[in-house]
């Protein structure tokens, strides 16, 4: 596959990107600390929203659905900004790996599907499975597209 | 107390996702994002196990909401899928999202079954 050496696929860390490769040895405590702090903020926000909007085992997990779609939209925006203009070395670890990674959750997604199936609500489970999958991909695309367009229009794009 | 437990779990889970991702990539230089798939599957396995036992609020907050929630991610998965599509790797993009869902569901069921069996 003809991938340019710096083409980023993984927003958490991509060793094809020289800055990512070097960051952990350059300042390990700052990087891991930023990720942990961001993760705490993201996870607590998620827990707060999930507590405010609980769902029965047979119901549609709207809170987790909204959290995951919002997180995917925002990672699209964030990575477009990071790719277009110079940002501090801890912006991606804190906001991307930490806050958004801690905010969104894959484990609750699959376990909620499993619970709904076990509770006899197979159609709700299937609807949730498909809606999150399609919604997450549309959200990341929309976030990336909107941010990229805005960055170009405001003329702040460096590349 | 719940807030503190979630915070401790997340403070461990998020850096572990980053470190696992780095370790996987350092070992296998592959166009496929194995690192994220690994953390998502392992987190699903563990949360499946937590869901199977009569876990109290302490374990649920610390291990479930905090650790598994921060270890696993949809934002990373969706962005990787977008980027794989952008570089023309449509098969890898589709495989990434489908393998994540299928393996995640399988892992959660396995975790559930194992915890049930071990718990009597």
How would you summarize the topology of this molecule?
The complex is a heterodimer of chains A (159) and B (120).
Chain A: H1 18-26, H2 28-52, H3 62-84, H4 91-103, H5 107-118, H6 122-153
Helix pairs in contact in A: 1-2, 2-4, 3-4, 3-6, 5-6
Chain B: H1 2-27, H2 34-52, H3 57-71, H4 75-86, H5 90-118
Helix pairs in contact in B: 1-2, 1-3, 2-3, 2-5, 4-5
Description:
Chain B: It is a multi-pass membrane protein. Chain B: One of its GO terms (biological process) is cellular detoxification of fluoride. Chain B: The chain crosses the membrane at residues 46-72, 93-115. Chain B: Fluoride-specific ion channel. Important for reducing fluoride concentration in the cell, thus reducing its toxicity. Chain B: Keywords: Cell membrane, Ion channel, Ion transport, Membrane, Metal-binding, Sodium, Transmembrane, Transmembrane helix, Transport. Chain A contains 6 helices and no strands. Chain A has helices spanning 18-26, 28-52, 62-84, 91-103, 107-118, 122-153. In chain A, helix 1 (18-26) crosses helix 2 and helix 2 (28-52) runs parallel beside helix 4. In chain A, 72% of the residues lie in helices and 0% in strands. By secondary structure, chain A is mainly α. The radius of gyration of chain A is 18 Å and the shape is globular. Chain A has one domain (18-153). With 120 residues, chain B is mainly α. Chain B has one domain (2-118). In chain B, 84% of the residues lie in helices and 0% in strands. In chain B, helix 4 runs antiparallel to helix 5 (90-118). The interface between A and B is large, with 61 and 62 residues.
């Amino acid at each position: 596959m003809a991938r340019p050496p710096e083409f980023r696929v993984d927003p958490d860390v991509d060793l094809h990107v020289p800055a990512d490769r070097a960051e952990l040895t350059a300042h390990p405590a700052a990087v891991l600390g930023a990720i942990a702090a961001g993760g705490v903020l993201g996870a607590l926000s998620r827990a707060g929203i999930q507590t405010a909007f609980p769902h029965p085992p047979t119901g549609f997990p709207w809170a987790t659905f909204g959290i995951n779609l919002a997180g995917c939209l925002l990672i699209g925006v964030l990575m477009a900004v990071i790719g277009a203009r110079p940002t501090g070395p801890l912006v991606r670890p804190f906001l991307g790996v930490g806050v958004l990674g801690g905010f969104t959750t894959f484990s609750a997604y699959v376990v909620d599907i499993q619970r709904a199936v076990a509770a006899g609500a197979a159609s709700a489970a299937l609807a949730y499975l498909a809606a999150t999958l399609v919604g997450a991909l549309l959200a990341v695309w929309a976030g990336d597209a909107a941010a990229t367009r805005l960055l170009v229009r405001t003329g702040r794009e460096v590349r | 107390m719940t807030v503190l437990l979630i915070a401790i779990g997340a403070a461990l889970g998020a850096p572990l996702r980053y470190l696992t991702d780095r370790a996987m990539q350092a070992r296998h230089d592959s166009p496929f994002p194995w690192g994220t798939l690994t953390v998502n599957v392992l987190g699903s396995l563990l949360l499946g196990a937590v869901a199977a036992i009569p876990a109290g609020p302490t374990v649920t907050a610390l291990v479930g909401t905090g650790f598994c929630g921060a270890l696993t991610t949809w934002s990373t998965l969706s962005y990787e899928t977008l980027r794989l599509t952008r570089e023309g790797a449509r098969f890898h993009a589709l495989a990434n999202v489908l393998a994540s869902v299928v393996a995640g569901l399988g892992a959660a069921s396995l975790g559930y079954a194992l915890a049930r069996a071990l718990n009597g």
